[in-house]
Amino acid sequence: MNREAKKQEILDAFSFRHATKEFDPTKKISDEDFQFILETARLSPSSVGYEPWKFVIVQNETLREKLREVTWGGQGQLPTASHFVVILARTIKDTKYDSDYVANQMLHVKGIPAEMFETIKARYKTFQENDLKLLESDRSMFDWASKQTYIALANMMTAAAQIGIDSCPIEGFDYDKVQEVLAEEGLLENGHLAVSVMAAFGYRKNEPRPKTRKPMDDIVQWVK
Question: What is the distance between the alpha carbons of residues 160 and 39, in angstroms, rounded to a whole number?
Answer without folding.
Answer: 11
